[in-house]
Amino acid sequence: MKQFLNFINGEFVATGRTFEKRAPANNQVIGQVHEAGQAEVDAAVAAGRAALKGEWGRMSVVRRAELLHAVADEINRRFDEFLAAELADTGKPHSLASHIDIPRGAANFKVFADIVKNVPTESFQMTTPDGGTAISYAARSPLGVIGVICPWNLPLLLMTWKVGPALACGNTVIVKPSEETPATATLLGEVMNAVGIPKGVYQVLHGFGPGSAGEFITRHPGINGITFTGETRTGEAIMAAAAKGVRPVSFELGGKNAGIVFADADFDKAVAGITRSAFENCGQVCLGTERVYVQRPIFEKFVQALKDKAESLKIGPSELPGVGLGPLISAEHKAKVLGYYAQAVEQGATVVTGGGVPDMPGEYAQGHFVQPTIWTGLPETASVIREEIFGPCCHIAPFDTEEEAIALANATDYGLATTVWTQNLGTAHRVANAIEVGLCWVNSWFLRDLRTAFGGAKASGIGREGGVHSLEFYTETKNIMIRL
Ligand code: NDP
Predict the structure, then answer these.
(1) Which atom, in ligand 1's list, is nearest to the CA of 255?
(2) CB contact at 8 A, 8 and 44
(3) Where in the sequence numbering do the catalytic residues fall?
(4) Is beta strand 133-142 parallel, antiparallel or unpaired with respect to 123-127?
(5) How far is the centre of ligand 1, averaged over its atoms, from the C-alpha of 214 (Å)?
(6) Whose CA is nearest to atom 8 of ligand 1?
(7) Residue 214, pLDDT score
(8) Which is nearest to 446 in space by CA: 258, 283, 285?
(9) What is the mean pLDDT of residues 365-381?
(10) Residue having the nearest C-alpha atom to atom 14 of ligand 1
(11) CA–centroid distance, residue 461 to ligand 1 (Å)
(12) Which positions are catalytic residues (predicted)?
């Protein structure tokens, strides 16, 4: 049986307190995860602090960048192992993990190493009150030991999205992967050792959130900042923990994202785009679309076309050729999603397609598969329109005017992402500016330039990461003023 160990100060550490990791596709136990307690958290924090004072703390930016490039190269060299680990943990389609999760996971190290090497700080010259001259310049130093708390939906990608910039800026990190996806974070420990990243720079602690490794990390006074991706409710708990010591947080939280399709959109592209944004990764993407608003002249045609697309998705395990929809991550999450499927019906939805569990052959009948599901006819107060489900489902409602579409999209506490489909440039710019989100895609979805800001407005996050924006969180900027 595979053992997922903690990675502390360059060594893999068993604790003897284990919990099971099960495969989402057939619910079979695939490994034992060793839960870290307070003692392991204390040890990791001490090692992280020591590394800041040692070779890592003294290392030049150029050398750090070289090492991070080596990390990316080593992930790519062991691509198949990372892919197999991610597929086993998540059950997602092979095509998705091989095109997005693993390559982007490796790319995150290169992109941020290059940014840190090349981005200047500001400098000003001023005249002093007595007519003299002074110059100021900014210098960046690392924040310290960073707690990195991660979700299960894109495990390697979302973890390295934080670890890449944190290390590039000279910090050390303690990663707490989701209890559902321990594998790739652990494997990355081997990569760190192989390329010569000093001990204590990258560490991994397994466990749960409350009362376990997650909470112990966020409460530890030796942690200088916390970067977290996950549910908004969890973010509230972490923010309360971070208040002690006034430690900074960077949060990428939940969403209830709208898709807006205007009648002048390229119809086929809009249908393909919303199919992806609603159903990719079995709907377990924070940026996914669970509320679709379609302009009335094309409403019926759009609903029919999205229904056809949903029903054409092949449901199955990762290795099935052509599979488009894998399982949900866990039995618990499946129960949550099916709970929403039931609520939609109770609240009067028309079920356009799906709404239940597909018939799966053999061992996959034990897996966490659900049908892609589309509803119409619900009032905007319905729970499946208000609350984040994180499943392969969406509600579609008609709208008449641009103003109405904007108001509908903004009528939520969340503010993560929107996808807008129109061929009118004026409409695109007006709507993109009026939508209260951190990310607005026009005629696209999940298209990312890693140099750009990523994050959510309203209850969907605090701060932005990506490109130079990551430096704002992962460094302390000091102003140095010199009177000449
Ligand atoms: P959770 O918030 O449940 O968990 C995220 C991580 O936080 C896990 O490692 C979890 O541990 C840990 N955790 C839970 N409670 C605490 C606590 N009190 N203190 C410290 N750590 C804690 O999110 P999910 O893993 O369920 O991921 C899905 C959510 O993530 C969705 O809401 C989704 O929208 C959001 N998300 C947001 C993204 C964004 O960029 N905005 C991107 C991807 C996902 P464990 O679960 O192991 O117990």
Answers:
(1) 34
(2) yes
(3) 252
(4) antiparallel
(5) 10
(6) 178
(7) 98
(8) 285
(9) 98
(10) 209
(11) 12
(12) 252
Q: What are phi and psi of 387, to 5 degrees?
A: -105, 145
The whole-chain average pLDDT of the chain stands at 98
List, in sequence order, every residue forming a beta bridge with 476; answer none if it has no partner: 141
pLDDT of residue 83: 98
416 CA closest ligand 1 atom index? 41
Mean pLDDT calculated for residue range 209-228 = 98
Q: What is the model's pLDDT at position 361?
A: 96
CA-proximal residue: ligand 1, atom 45 (nearest):
208
Domains delineated in the chain: 2-253+460-483 (3.40.605.10), 257-449 (3.40.309.10)
Q: How far is the CA of 310 from the centre of ligand 1 (A)?
A: 27
Provide φ and ψ at 216, rounded to 5°: -60, -35
Q: Is 438 in the pocket of ligand 1 (CB under 6 A)?
A: no
**Separation between Cα atoms, residue 379 and residue 383, nearest integer Å:** 9
Write down the pLDDT at residue 480: 98
* Cα–Cα–Cα angle for 383, 388, 393, rounded to 5 degrees: 85
**To the nearest whole percent, how much of the chain has pLDDT over 90?**
100
Identify the band that residue 179 occupies on the pLDDT scale cut at 50, 70 and 90.
very high
- Write out the two tokens for 180: 């559902």
Task: For ligand 1, say whether the CB of 152 is within 6 Å of any of its atoms.
Answer: yes
Mean pLDDT of 418-438: 98
